[in-house]
Amino acid sequence: MSYIDGFILAVPKANKEKFSQHAEVADAVFIEWGATRIFECWEDDVPDGKVTDFRRAVQAKEDEAVVFSWIEWPDKATRDAGMEKIMAAMDSDPRLNPEKNPMPFDGMRMIFGGFAPVVALGK
Predict the structure, then answer these.
(1) Which neighbouring-strand residues pair with 12?
(2) pTM exceeds 0.85
């Protein structure tokens, strides 16, 4: 079964185009190293919760949007091998180098993790 890396982050609303450009460049590397699909989703209907919510999770400010992203891999072994190669290429591949392709958001507030699906429906 597939393996999923999930991400939630806060991006300044003024950086929506910069974020999309950054993601298109960087995400291509994940595809090259085995990811099957990547989704970068800009907030559209993200309500405030009573106890917790996406905005509070990433400490989003008024001028920031929540982005929900995931990378689908064929399996965990492919993900682990791909991520090892990606981490090794951080300095040498300009698409991943923060000086050449800077993140248009505060990476310190990004939440991420790897997930093994337990239910998968659909096509």
Answers:
(1) 64
(2) yes
